[in-house]
Amino acid sequence: MMQMNNINLTEVGRRENDFQQPILVNYRSQTLKEMPARFIFECAQKLEMKPLTSATAAILYHRFFRELDDTEYDPYMIACSCLYLAGKIKDDKVRKRNVINVAHNTIHRGAPPLEPCDEYWSMWDTIVQAELFIARVLKFDMTIVHPHKYMLHYMKSLQDQFGAQDWQAMPVARAAASFLQDFHHSPKILDYKPAHTAVCCLALAFQVYGVPVPLMDEMDETTRWYNIFCPELTREQHWEIMESIMDVYDMETIISEN
Predict the structure, then answer these.
(1) Per the count of CB atoms within 10 A, which of 60, 105, 138, 209 is most buried?
(2) What are the angstrom distances between the C-alpha of 162 and each of 30, 98, 148, 159, 226?
(3) Burial of 30 (0-12, 13-18, 19+ CB in 10 A)
């Protein structure tokens, strides 16, 4: 397989593992614009929301701030509202009370659950109002085509090529799914077609683990395995998307050094 220039793929794999066991961050002291998206996934994990629900919340968040100036709104309250709204959209509902307490405890590490008080009811009202505001900003279009469904289809096809036993023994599927979920931390997830994102997450996993794709030797030089799934995906777009995915892990490195 072709190797990516100037990229340490072993380091990418290590960072991906670190991302799955995130550092406890003091969100109040962090100014990185990616932090609220990270906050969404930490809260979603604590709320035991499904991966597709947290991905939906992240997409809603990124879409919202594509439309509006992020300096005018509290990004963490918008993130809370996106979580609550995503739970409704994906039928993975959580109680507003739990969203409030998890969000409060995530921002204020070690704080006890909020009892009904001015702060509690202020957060409650803000989430309700922000939920409606987000819907209006997005023109009530909550339709999201996730890359996940494409990835499942591609994985099934690849499993047939490798053989079920060999495929299950490889870490490629797990790594690709992790890359896809982590890419939702970045607003760049909105820049690419879901099918392209899915196949590039798989390609990155193959690169990281040095796994060759079967039957590649039988293809001509102008055809790459991912073009079987996405004929219109160019080589340049392929590398660009993979580099955008890997950029997410640079954020975690910056956080760990602060």
Answers:
(1) 60
(2) 44, 44, 20, 5, 15
(3) middle
Question: How do residues 54-99 score in pLDDT, each as one tens digit?
Answer: 999 999 999 999 998 767 788 999 999 999 999 999 999 889 999 9
User: Is the distance from CB of 202 to CB of 238 less than 8 angstroms?
Assistant: no
Residues of the chain under the 70 pLDDT cut:
1-23, 30-31, 70, 214-223, 252-258
Residues making up the chain, counted from first to last: 258
Taken in order of first residue, the domains within the chain and their CATH numbers are 34-138 (1.10.472.10), 147-253 (1.10.472.10)
Q: What are phi and psi of 139, to 5 degrees?
A: 60, 30
Nearest alpha carbon to residue 239 among 10, 1, 5: 5
pTM reported for the whole predicted model: 0.85
Q: Give me the pLDDT at residue 41, please.
A: 95
3-state secondary structure 179-212: HHHHHCCCHHHHHCCHHHHHHHHHHHHHHHHCCC
Between helix 147-162 and helix 51-67 the angle, nearest 10°, is 130
Question: DSSP secondary structure string, 23-36?
Answer: PP--GGG---TTHH
In single-letter form, the type of residue at position 202 comes to L
